Automatic annotation (TrEMBL):
It is found in: Cell membrane. It comes from Gordonia asplenii. The lineage of its organism: Bacteria, Bacillati, Actinomycetota, Actinomycetes, Mycobacteriales. SUPFAM superfamilies: MFS general substrate transporter (SSF103473). GO terms for molecular function: transmembrane transporter activity. This is MFS transporter. It is a multi-pass membrane protein. Pfam families: MFS_1 (PF07690). Its main location: membrane.
């Protein structure tokens, strides 16, 4: 349980740092409470997405299924979240973000209880349904940005936005770290009971959120057709990515889904272009201020999540393979704990660094560059646990800087009334990039196997090298992100 203790202390550290700075800037207790609730809500949702990664083998054994069947426990959440996130962001902009946050946390609690009970009873279908219900809580994440922007004082907002953005990575890393030790001590069901408990705490804390937060009075329509087409395109894309390895990249199912993505995406673009109240303003995807950021987000997620996916496989590979450590799930969690710890440590300083000469764009580029260094370290030095842990620490700092600055960049480039929608789009792009990175990395490693034997060390080296090149490309793409007026404004606020 040392892993869980380290993560809890690290998250407590970021909360204390945040509160200390908040007290220096503003003595308003209500705004401090709002920020704390938003951070907890974002953290719990991010935890819920990845917490199954460390216990997939246990779930396969308990349900009597294979690795592909167990992977659906992750895929089900991702698909539901992909559908809910952009729709929730739009609804929050229209009708108030608090309502969406409360609804999402309630669904997370219900889905977590259903999953925990189903795992305990060995009911696979019930567990999948529970994960789908959990996934609908993905809409909480973009609405935390929208609510923060509307109700928090200006001097505190940059730091909260940076912390919220970092929570996507912090929670994701923490979920993978704590699941193994928790399952070893209290059983696999305890993983989902933990999420249920945290979501209830966040739901109780939502009483501190403004009850009469207004939406956009000029935008009350909802684009049902656009929502259906977007959901179909996202589900087809993520389903193809997540199942390509088991189905085969050239299988009829995978190819058919690829065609479906193009058809649904094209129809969605045509509908949104002609609709007076579009679900997503296409300028949020392809506008001058956001196109480079959105592309960089996908590329960064692709490169970074590849490493997070490969490290447990590397650590748990038997030493007879010539490169693994033969670790259990709990020891694997300890090995990759530096990623979550360093990401948590980096999050509070992101906004302060963004106030320096280079601004948020420079912080993002620094994070992407540092990630490339960490991935190159894994490529060259992975023969000892200490070497892997050091590279993981570098990656954690990189994740904290890159993900922490993305939220600031999105807010800088978006009108206040579209914050939820823009944050929802960016969140989905991170998820899509992460899913693609995980699938590509695993495919590269699997391709190194010969005669049905285990993957070779060369496969891991190649995957880490490709990932390093990808995140290096993200740093170059980020150079095209326009500087915004708020960069200078943020620098002035922090210096004061």
């Amino acid at each position: 349980m040392w892993v869980a203790a380290v993560l809890v202390l690290s998250v407590a550290h970021i909360v204390r740092r945040f509160k200390k700075r908040a007290e220096e800037d503003d003595d308003s207790a209500p705004s401090r409470a709002v920020a704390s609730v938003l951070l907890l809500a974002a953290l719990v949702v991010a935890l819920a997405q990845t917490i199954v990664v460390g216990v997939l083998a246990d779930l396969a054994r308990e349900f009597g299924t294979d690795a592909v069947g167990a992977t659906w426990m992750l895929t089900a959440f991702m698909l539901a979240s992909a559908v809910a996130t952009p729709i929730a962001g739009r609804l929050g902009d229209q009708h108030g973000h608090r309502r969406v946050i409360v609804t999402g946390l309630a669904l997370l609690a219900i889905g977590s209880v259903l999953t925990a009970v189903s795992v305990g009873a060995g009911w696979y279908s019930g567990a999948l349904l529970g994960r789908v219900v959990q996934g609908f809580a993905g809409g909480v994440f973009p609405c935390t940005f929208g609510l923060a922007r509307q109700v928090l004082p200006g001097q505190r907002l940059p730091r909260v936005i940076a912390a919220l953005s970092a929570m996507f990575g912090v929670g994701g890393a923490a979920g993978m770290v704590v699941a193994g030790p928790l399952a070893d001590v209290a059983g696999t069901s305890a993983v989902f009971w933990t999420i249920a408990g945290l979501s209830v705490i966040a739901l109780a804390g939502s009483g501190a959120l403004p009850r009469h937060q207004a939406g956009n009075p000029q935008s009350r329509g909802f684009d049902i057709t656009g929502g259906v087409l977007l959901a179909a395109a996202l589900v087809s894309l993520l389903l193809a990515i997540s199942q390509a390895r088991s189905w085969g990249a050239a299988s009829p199912a995978t190819v058919g889904l690829g065609i479906a993505v193009l058809v649904f995406a094209g129809a969605f673009g045509a509908v949104e272009h002609r609709t007076a109240e579009p679900l997503i303003d296409l300028r949020l995807l392809f506008g001058r201020r956001l196109i480079a950021l959105n592309v960089a987000t996908v590329v960064t997620g692709l490169g970074m999540f590849a490493a997070v996916t490969l490290l447990p496989l590397l650590a748990q590979a038997p030493p007879q393979s010539g490169y693994g450590f033969g670790y259990s799930a709990a020891r694997t969690g300890l090995l990759i704990a530096p990623i979550g710890v360093c990401m948590t440590v980096a999050a509070p300083v992101t906004s302060r660094l963004a106030g320096q000469k280079k601004g948020a764009r420079g912080v993002f580029q620094a994070g992407a560059t540092l990630a490339a260094v960490g991935l190159l370290g894994l490529c060259a030095f992975h023969d000892r646990p200490l070497h892997v842990a050091i590279s993981g620490a570098v990656l954690g700092l990189a994740y904290g800087l890159a993900f922490g600055s993305i939220g600031t960049l999105v807010v800088d480039a978006t009108p206040p009334e579209q914050t939820g929608a823009a944050a929802g789009i960016n969140t989905i792009l991170r998820t899509v990039g992460g899913a693609m990175g995980s699938a590509i990395a695993v495919a590269i490693v699997a391709a190194s196997s010969t005669s049905h034997g285990p993957p070779t060390e060369a496969g891991y080296k190649t995957a880490f090298l490709v990932s390093a090149a990808v995140v290096g490309l993200a740093a170059l793409i980020a150079a095209a992100i326009p500087a915004t007026a708020s960069d200078a404004h943020l620098r002035d606020e922090i210096r004061e």
